[in-house]
Amino acid sequence: MSDLLSRLIDNMIGRVDGPMHIRLLLQPLMATFFAIKSGMKDAKAGDPPYFWALFTNPDHRRAMLRNGWKSISNTFIMAIVMDIIYQLIKLHTIYPVEALLVAIILAIIPYLLLRGPANLFLRHFVTPKPPVTSAEHSSAIQTEVVGKH
Q1: Integer Cα distance of 47 and 67 in angstroms
Q2: Residue 28 and residue 112 in contact, taking contact as beta carbons nearer than 8 Å
Q3: Residue from 134, 107, 123, 93 nearest 11 by CA
Q4: Left if phi > 0, otherwise alpha if psi is -120 to 50, otherwise beta: which for 20?
Q5: C-alpha distances in Å from residue 123, one per residue of 28, 50, 120, 130
Q6: Are 34 and 110 in contact (CB under 8 A)?
Q7: pLDDT for 18-51, tens place per residue?
Q8: Domain boundaries, the chain
């Protein structure tokens, strides 16, 4: 077991400067892009922050997980494929558990950590303000005119 853990740690560290190391930057950036995009949709819909709602809203958890997977699945699969290519080039073998772990670290975790904060941040900018009624508009104009005199 310690050999397995030692190999896992060595292989994970080796990914930082090995071939295709640019993916260690690009895949989290892709996950960030999709997290912000989904967070914007959540903000427009008035939905709660995603990761928090997964724990506090059990009635909608399945639909939320499906929605999240739909958003991040291509990035996750791409992370697995890219890691398998890396393993074949560098290690000359495939370690599926390592590929899965790398994909989770590079795609799922950034997405989960950023979708909710993106929602909260964007909610202040994209949430429509209630329309002003004509009575409120007239009152505001009268107040402005009276205040100037």
Answers
A1: 13
A2: no
A3: 93
A4: left
A5: 23, 13, 5, 14
A6: no
A7: 677 788 888 899 999 999 999 999 998 888 999 8
A8: 2-148
